[in-house]
User: Fold this.
Amino acid sequence: MTILIKGVQLDGHTKDIYINNGIIEEISEHCTLNADRTINGKGKIALPSLINGHTHAAMTLLRGYADDMPLKEWLEGKIWPLENKMTAEDIYWGSKFACLEMIKNGITVFNDMYWFWEATAKAVCDMGIRGFLSAVFIDMFDLERSKKQIEHNIELFELSEKYKPHVTFTFGPHAIYTVCKESLQWMRDFSEKYDILIHMHLSEIEEETRFSQEKYGLSPTEFLDDTGILSNRFIGCHGCWLDENDCSILKQHDAKLVHMPVSNLKLSVGRLFPYRHIKNGHGIPFCFGTDGCASNNHLDLIETMKFASLLAKFSSGDPTMLSAKETFDIATKTAASMFFLPEWEIKTGNSPDIILIDTNRPELKPGFDIYSDIVYASNGYIVDTVICMGNILMEERHVPGEEGIIKEFIKTAHRLAEK
Amino acid sequence: MTILIKGVQLDGHTKDIYINNGIIEEISEHCTLNADRTINGKGKIALPSLINGHTHAAMTLLRGYADDMPLKEWLEGKIWPLENKMTAEDIYWGSKFACLEMIKNGITVFNDMYWFWEATAKAVCDMGIRGFLSAVFIDMFDLERSKKQIEHNIELFELSEKYKPHVTFTFGPHAIYTVCKESLQWMRDFSEKYDILIHMHLSEIEEETRFSQEKYGLSPTEFLDDTGILSNRFIGCHGCWLDENDCSILKQHDAKLVHMPVSNLKLSVGRLFPYRHIKNGHGIPFCFGTDGCASNNHLDLIETMKFASLLAKFSSGDPTMLSAKETFDIATKTAASMFFLPEWEIKTGNSPDIILIDTNRPELKPGFDIYSDIVYASNGYIVDTVICMGNILMEERHVPGEEGIIKEFIKTAHRLAEK
Assistant:
């Protein structure tokens, strides 16, 4: 499949971009090659697509189902009971709708942790985006459960071959308070042997540190260091309660972090992502995530970028922190490198996914600084076109088949809630 | 002018709403009255319109012009020099475009403080919305300047008759560090005599408290109390640095506050709006504002509501704070009462402005709780139709003449930046 984007704005110049099977083969003033599909780029800006560093895609099913509640009551009285009733089919439609919502917001890659792994894998393939998918690995310190989880994860890892190249299998140890040391050590070895990413909640809430200190006499990060699981394949999510020493350990092992500003506020986790330690102090690579729809409730990474940049400024007392351009680069370039994706810049020879921004949207006017306008003044509605792995997934904000997906998703969510 | 909205969702029921010159005359299952204009309400929800409690409308001209800078450098090097070059015509186009942006985001009432009062008044009338407009009253403790400002404000007050009912004149004493006690006392008397609202920045930054303590030996609120200017006509904007005693004084005088969560983060003012004192402790009425486009940069009050609700949860450590419904009510009902507008609820005999929400937007699905979905999962793009003072300003997201306004606005902003 070849695509020619005619007369689009790229780094301030009008260009034609020729894409062959996802690889950018030509960027020029006037490309004369023939393409299977031609896109009129007039009034549009080409940018690399956005990467959602942490979510639970199928939780779209729970959007608006239970908000404004105390955490314990919310989880135990509402979220978990409904999650327990979910079937593979529910998860398929929840994930498929999440993929649709992400496409509509310019996201083509997401890092997921949820139940019924294969259902989400199918949804990702059917929607044509890229998913780094992990099952939720929880053993509650029970070695029998650990054994079963390990077997299940080996099965999924083997199964994942079938869903390449859209899906990449990752490990999803839930958190240090739900997974035993033995399981983590097994994942450490298996992930090293087969080069598998490890996706884990880390230092989201204060209770986690308390638990870790009581059980192990160590902070969560010190404990993970002790298990040997930290490496450049390790991605810790949230990180609000990390201290300076934790950051130094993570940096030492080349581990990465994902920041969920909206979720952290909504669930009032008590501390903001410590940008100063993470960014200035240690230069730990991090990107942004929306988190799931029960704790955000929108898979709009442009909105998330605004929250992230503004919270960085506020919490550091420095209005120059996380500038618009830097924020955008983190959500694209840095995020891609964290997931070992190819260079996420629109250059000849590269193969990033591409979005086209509709510059006619009034919120992007007068148009002094495109990055500033995207991060501070807009939202996902500015995304007009999405190209992923060499295929056009959305044009003029329309995704083929979206009406049917939305309909089936609504039915599924209501059926689930009434179970 | 009569409007009939057919088959729209209202409080969970399908209704017809008949509006005669802005007054809701009938709400029924099937209205048989004839109307000048009929709107198909299918797939839409009718809600009272949003009220923007504090902005500097024409600062749309500066959107994206200078972000991510230290405050002093930003103000002195960028914002003030450009503001000094603005003409009445610039302000007219900046304000007109701001009105357009507000309409597109479901806002029909805004509270403004800016230069060239009459230019903004004209823009408000031309766009058909409602503006509470104040000139920026600054005298820098110079009694000559104070005298001139007083004369100028009396002139504007008289002139404002011409712009009724769209425009209401208010006083805009900039802040306690730019306006002398004598000016404030004059405004106190004049506002009491003619029933004029007073719109003032209050306790936005720590320096303000320091200044007040040094000059007066009082906190900013204690000083205002001392001048006698506090009353139910007083609207203090920001309020981040208010302490418990300040809140008690404000409550005593029935004064009100406006909260600008996005601006406070972006300019990193050092403290969050103290919800606990203001809301729980003293029950001071407050509403939300976007602030101007240089410090937000989007006049989207739905986005602002999400920031406000989430920051309230985070800063109080309580995820039940500012629920979605309460947040929405603050931005509509409470805000209307602060500005002495009629009851802002869609009931027979009332005359609130009305917006219709497009429930087909996927971010509002599955649709378990409309307030939750609006506040946490959406943005201004869900607004389909806007009715203000009995006129339809927007239908299917189109405002008549918007293309021309955008074009002229862009020209104006770029001409200004190049001056």
Observations:
- Chain B has two domains: 2-48+355-402, 50-338.
